[in-house]
Amino acid sequence: MRFGFRAVAGLLARIIMAAAALVALAPANAADFGASSRFPANPASGNGRYAFDLEMRVSIESDRGSGDATIYVNSADGSMAVADPHLTLWAFGAPDIPGLQVHQLIIRRGEIMACGRHPDYGNGCMQMGGAGAGAFHMAVADARAFLASDRGIDEAAARADLGDTSGLQPISGQMRDGTLATFWVEPGQSTIATQEPFLGPGVGVLKDYRVNRNRTVRIASFGFAEVEEMPLQWMTMRLRDLRQSTHRLDSSAYPLVTAFSTVGVSEATDLSAWITAQGRQVAALQQQLDACPRGRSGSDCRAEYRAQIKALEDQIRARALGFGARHGLPTGD
What's residue 29's pLDDT? Predict the structure, then answer.
């Protein structure tokens, strides 16, 4: 489960990174461009109550398949919730996990969080990430490179059936990771106030510092670099509708699982290396135990090595249970 969802988290981060990279460099002077959203921001991390003031209906087409998604967006902090998370995860290339029910999918800076029920883990909200935060930070550094790398219409866009693009202005470029992106934007100014660089999953509202306008991105296409963990080769999005929303959700009833977050995965990697090392010690002690004299003469020898093996196994178990308890996994104790 971790691999599939973290791969999708990385994919979403790439899309956010490509979109946010259109943010160029200078502060704005226009009052409407400098206005902040008056809507309350959502919790920055973990469980809680969430509210969204924008609803985006998006059509998604990729080499994996196609479908429609409804995305709710908070204009103050850019956080998003997905109306049909299971279908949307599939469209983004996530593998189907038997028995998994995804009830809520929340995307925010520094984190993608899926809440639902798994037959082995029960109910929970699974944090997946620092990928989102890295995307936003990288976008600032990539802004000049992206805008300077104008390649015309990218290959993904050329393959896709984009429909009517009349009246829209294309902006194309390449990210440092090799992702190609083309955005078709309306020439006018969006009426949505925000200081977030981008609102939406790849289409939505772009804060374009080159012209001091908040602009509506109607179509976006992405051609992804060919790397092992990337579930898709290309994707195209079309913004079908953008309207105000009163959508609310509450994830506080779900236990929080942080084992698959950036910190959790790093700690699990260290723990795995430690357990492997302890396992080698257990194997060496087992060899010495097997070499003890048979019968009564070897009883003290066997007792000594069995005690040492048990002590190591108890340490391993305690460390593993401690990891599970800290990160919200069921321990069985």
Answer: 37
Cβ contact 199:242 at 8 Å: no
Any domain includes 320: yes
Task: Please enumerate in sequence order all residues whose Cβ is within 8 A of that of 146, keeping only pairs 6 or more positions apart, or say none.
Answer: 18, 21, 22, 173, 174, 175, 181
Contact 119, 26 (CB under 8 A): no
Question: Does a structural domain hold residue 223?
Answer: yes
Structural contact between residues 83 and 59, judged by C-beta atoms closer than 8 angstroms = no
Burial of 296 (0-12, 13-18, 19+ CB in 10 A): exposed
In the block, tokens 């020439």 appear at 187
On whether both 220 and 318 belong to a single domain, the answer is no
**Cα–Cα distance list, 15 to 207, 214, 253 (Å):** 16, 19, 30
Mind listing the pLDDT tens digit for each residue in 8-33? Answer: 555 555 555 555 555 443 333 333 78
Domain of 316 in residue numbering reads as 262-326
H/E run at residue 90: helix 85-91
Other C-beta atoms lying within 10 Å of the C-beta of residue 88: 22
In this structure, the answer to whether residues 242 and 295 fall within a common structural domain is no
pLDDT score of 40: 94
Instruction: Specify the 3-state DSSP secondary structure of 219.
Output: strand
Nearest to 104 by CA among 95, 94, 117, 122: 117
| pTM listed for this prediction | 0.71
Residue 322 falls inside a structural domain: yes
Who has greater pLDDT, 280 or 136? 280
Please indicate, yes or no, whether residues 169 and 234 belong to a single structural domain of this protein: yes
Q: 180 exposed, middle or buried (CB, 10 Å; 0-12, 13-18, 19+)?
A: buried
Where does a domain end: 204, 222, 250?
250
For residue 26, being part of any structural domain is answered with yes
- Tell me: do 243 and 280 sit in the same domain: no
Is 11 in the same domain as 152?
A: yes
In which residue are the tokens 């921001």 written?
A: 41
What the block records as the tokens of 329 is 């996994």
Note the pLDDT tens digit of each residue in 156-208: 445 556 677 788 988 877 766 677 778 888 888 888 998 888 888 888 988 88
Q: Which two tokens stand for residue 149?
A: 């790398």
